[in-house]
Amino acid sequence: MNKDSFIAVFARSQVSAFCGGVVDYSIMLILTEFFGVHYVLSIVIGGVCGAVVNYTANRRWTFEGTTESKKTQIPKFITVALGTIFLKSTGTYVFTEFLKIDYKISRLIVDAFVAFGFNFTLQKYWVFK
């Protein structure tokens, strides 16, 4: 990784996360609203698709991790992605079912916490270190 400032890397990571998040959130909406898939399952499916976009952007652009072996990065990234999907689906379920907040809004609230408190930290210091 080059010697970019923390702020530059953080900004790029948020752009990458946003791109993956748009894919993730859109798939959730399409599956739930148009195909009647339960929102929790839609979050899981969208999360997998968004993770592919996020990994690609992070490896090539955000953390410039193309010199490290994919054999090392991919298992770590999958672990983080599975944790992310678990936190997003569980958190959205709790906010929706117990706090009675619409799943679309619950998901955005949960995403904000997961993105800053879980994803960035693990990706920067573990996956793409």
Strand percentage lies at under 5%
**Which runs of at least 5 residues are low in confidence (pLDDT < 50)?**
none
The outline comes out as elongated
Q: What pattern of helices and strands is seen along the backbone?
A: HHHH
* Total E-strand runs: 0
What is the CA–CA distance across the termini?
8 Å
Quote the average pLDDT. Answer: 92
- Helical stretch count? 4
Keywords:
mainly alpha; elongated
Quick structural overview:
This protein is an all-alpha fold and about 130 residues long. It has one domain (about 5-125). It is about 85% helix and about 0% strand.
Structural summary, described in words:
By secondary structure, this protein is mainly alpha-helical. The chain has one domain. It has helices spanning 6-35, 39-62, 70-97, 103-127. Helix 1 (6-35) packs antiparallel against helix 2 (39-62), helix 2 (39-62) runs antiparallel to helix 3 (70-97) and helix 3 packs antiparallel against helix 4 (103-127). The chain is elongated.
